[in-house]
Specification:
It comes from Acipenser ruthenus (Sterlet sturgeon). With about 180 residues, the chain is of the alpha+beta class. The protein contains three helices and ten strands, in the order H-E-E-E-E-E-E-E-E-H-E-E-H. A seven-stranded antiparallel beta sheet has the order 3-4-5-9-8-7-6.
Amino acid sequence: MLLLVQVSLLVSWLLCYSNACEEGVHASSSKRGGDILLCRSCGYEIASSLDLKFIASKLALAQRNDTVIGDQKVTLQLFENPHGRRFQVITLKQAALHKHWPADGHFSWFPGFSWTMSTCPRCHAHLGWSFQPSNWPGQVTEKHFEESEETFVALIVDKLLQENFAATLLVVPRTFRS
């Protein structure tokens, strides 16, 4: 009888634990709102789907729609740098990135904008570029950049991971399996 009570307590605890885990997975998304994009290298929260802002470029080699964030379709643009490397990017109003100023107007994929390389604040992986109007000074404050309606970031799709997808990659310890 005691064994039966212990087993039922263990089962109820496991059920509660799994529900709490599921709620925890979605808690960080709901705090910021929208679906979250993570750095593929370290898992740092980079951007929210609420920050999507499509900026079209005539210099894109190709454009296509894909479900990069959650269920919504996002326009991806394909660009090539002067060294022949190609990047599929999405554009957003803002993202949690370290910007390496000063901005450079040469070889910009968005005419009228200067760019600066942008990296993950945690692991320093190159995630994309931040763009500001070319008539701005080469270096601006982070606050000025984030508050402006004229600025945006282009993130490399292959360097990102959806938070919801990352949550499915977690390994469940054997003791929790049935």
